[in-house]
Amino acid sequence: MSHIVTIQFTKAGKMYDFNAGTLELVQGDHVVVETERGVGVGQVVKPPVDKDAEAVATLALVKRKATPDDMATVERIAQKEQEAYRFCVNRIIERSMPMKLVRVEYQFDSSKAVFFFTADGRVDFRDLVKDLAHSFHTRIEMRQIGVRDEAKMTGGIGICGRELCCSSFLREFQPVSVKMAKEQNLALNPNKISGQCGRLLCCLDYEYDTYCCLRKNFPKSGKRVRTVNAVGVVDKVNILTGNITLKLDDNKIIVIKRDEILGDGTPVTTQVPAAPTPAKSPQRTRERRPEQRRKQEKTSLESYTHAESVEKAAPVAPALREGTAATAPPQSETPKTGQQRKKHRSRKHGQRKPSGAAPDSSKPTPSSGA
Questions:
Q1: Which domain holds residue 16?
Q2: Residue 173 included in any domain
Q3: pLDDT at position 19, please?
Q4: Which residues of the chain have pLDDT under 50?
Q5: Is 61 in the same domain as 77?
Q6: Domain tally for the chain?
Q7: Counting Cβ atoms within 10 Å, is residue 86 exposed (0-12), middle (13-18) or buried (19+)?
Q8: How many angstroms separate the Cα of 71 from the Cα of each of 66, 76, 78, 108, 233?
Q9: Are 141 and 82 contained in the same domain?
Q10: What is the per-residue pLDDT for 36?
């Protein structure tokens, strides 16, 4: 079994697990450990816990407890960080660089100094690094951070009058949205819902789940509800007090409790059977017209096909088969019934046919001028 101890290097910073080995540690002790960045001094946050050796195979081992000499070294390093901070700020001002220095951290063995800064974009700090390396004779690392990390390192007092959550106990930042402020009926004023970093307050996330659970038992705003004495529309809902503000039909405002709601306030209306709309009949006629046209086209096509097949099936005259020209039979002079007789071409204009007399085709009628 191995002893696993949890250590933090800064206040409200990230926590890391280390293998305590045979050291007897309690909460609040300072220890010297080896990290990826180098040697550092951390504080025990949680007492050691016994775990299997396989689970702690990859954990670093705690070197020793911090001695008074180690704590004195930490104080000297803090003074060097302040001097490096002032020197770097002066160089930034002289070079008019678009960046803001936030903090300087030295390693426990002074092998490296990390300069944390904020900027809107990328910054060319190569000349600045040369000045810092020439003055402090150590490795220099420039690290750009965000505005939330800046507020965490700087600290301060929030609009609530307490120390900032991120610099006191909040170890990791959670995503915050405007929806959380709306769900809690907060005024969407940027000055009231924004923190020192200029982003939305981290505390908006603390009670968001509670508000969502409680709101399920209340009607939504704009819904029409009914009570014993009135019927109105929900105007406001106060989840903490349980009060619901109703707006009646006569624009009167009343405040009720959630238990007073009996149900929906939808007015009951008798449904009158609607008269048949005449617009449906033309639709049916229009739907049938294409079918009728198709039938007519089909019938005409069938008749045409039948007539064509009859002509092909009729016997051909023997004279046509032999290749001799066949003369058409003489037409009868007597006109068929139902056909009109052709007008006589020799009759002049204005000449009338004698009534009662049969026309003689052999003798032409004399003209009036003869």
A1: 2-66
A2: yes
A3: 87
A4: 268, 270, 281-283, 285, 287, 316-339, 360-363, 365, 367-370
A5: no
A6: 4
A7: exposed
A8: 7, 9, 11, 10, 67
A9: yes
A10: 81
Q: Is residue 291 part of a domain?
A: no
Give 96's DSSP letter. Answer: T
Q: Are residues 107 and 55 in the same domain?
A: no
Q: Residue 91 falls within a domain, yes or no?
A: yes
Q: Give the Å distances, CA to CA, from 16 to 21, 50, 108, 113, 173.
A: 15, 16, 17, 21, 17
Same domain, 89 and 53: no
Distance, first Cα to last Cα, the chain: 156
* Length in residues, the chain: 370
Q: Does any domain span residue 295? A: no
Q: Which of 127, 159, 153, 152 is nearest to 142 (CA)?
A: 127
Closest Cα partner for 240 from 203, 165, 160, 186?
186
pLDDT of res. 20: 86
> What pLDDT is recorded for position 311?
55
Whether residues 222 and 200 share a domain: the answer is no
Report pLDDT for 337: 47
Instruction: Tell me the pTM.
Output: 0.63
Residues ≥6 apart with Cβ < 8 Å to 88 = 101, 104, 115, 128, 132
**Domain of residue 244, CATH code:** 2.30.30.140
Strand partners, 57: none
Tell me which of 49, 66, 83 is where a domain ends.
66
Would you state the pLDDT for residue 278? 54
Here the tokens at position 77 are: 């390093």
Same-domain check for residues 207 and 242: no
- HSE (side-chain half, CA atoms, 13 Å) at 201: 21
Domain end marker among 20, 46, 66? 66
Same domain, 8 and 47: yes
Whole-angstrom Cα distance, residue 75 to residue 78? 5
CA angle 140, 144, 149 (to 5 degrees): 120
Q: How far apart are the C-alpha atoms of 226 and 335, rounded to whole Å?
A: 97
pLDDT tens per residue, range 213-253: 988 888 888 889 888 888 889 988 888 888 888 888 888 88
Half-sphere exposure of residue 72, counting CA atoms within 13 Å on the CB side? 3
Q: What's the confidence (pLDDT) of residue 58? A: 78
